[in-house]
Fold Porin.
Amino acid sequence: MIKNILLGCLGLMALHSNAQQQVSFYNDSNSFSNISPVLELVDDDWQSPPKSDADKGFSQTRLGVSYQHLSFEEFEFHIEQRLDYFVRSNADTALGYYQEQQEIPLLDKENYRVRLDYFANKSKGFGVTYSHTFKDKFLVEIKGSYWNVDYFRHSIVTGNVQGRQDNSLLGELNYEEYYTHNNFLKRPNEGDWDTNGNGYSMDVFTEFSLFDNLTIRADFIDVYNRFSLESLGYTSANINTKGSFVDNQGFSSFRPLLKGFEGQSEHKYQIPEQIALAFTYAHEQVDYALHLLRQGDINFMQIGAQFAYKKSMFELMFDPINLTPQLGYKIDYFKLEIAMDKLNPNKAMQLSLNMQVNWLF
């Protein structure tokens, strides 16, 4: 359906054969974690011990293609896929999860306080951007998008556990979970619940020249969004190891007790917004820049400079809080920005990649 709508738009606009057209392929990805390296967190394959202050991480990506006919240059059409992951935890949970994956007995602490809030959303959709410039000073862009949800999971776990030398666990956990596919208890879907839903979002971009040499840009991503699934898997449960028995060999053993509810539920949710502010001051041959970003509930700051060489623009930015450099290169048909706090991406706690390729015909 999405492809048919966009192809119809392309067909109508192609009738204006005297005008130029532009197709752009782009990737906008930003990830951060103070729990474990970003790629390990996304792949759920923790090979590195978590930091002592581990408590949060996220990874958000939009991958898409856009089309613009220059005789209708105020409109741009998009097909996109988006991936959104957020995790909130604490140091005890991160350490316990790492040790459990590595089959290390949970003996570092007498009691592990468990707190985990995991959110995952995968959607694909289409969008339309309308832009207008007022008096050559103030640019406003509004983008509306419709999404089909392909995968969703929101898991909340709290409680306390203690480890034993034989790798078994004692304690009590409470958890609530909404899911289309994966879930903690590996509950299979035998046609009992839906695995897709829908949603919509709005982004707003503004840019204006305050003075001749000072430009301010403000981006509001997902400033308004709503997603819903009519019937997805739902579990609410309590697990504890208070139940004990003596087996036929005379050994004392523990049988976890599980009580709760499994079924289906309607669910509505929102994705945290992103707010980005960019201040650029032009002085002679160099543009000095200050970037401020809030993604979820995490704040970032970058300072740096941009300078032109022939037809290209080079950028060097630095995040003084997370000690992360960013390099950028831009020309008419290509843009690349990459930021990593480690040279080895497999070890990076902060990883950002923004790339766009433009084809004008």
About this structure: The two ends are 26 Å apart (CA to CA). Residues 12-19 have pLDDT under 50 and may be disordered.
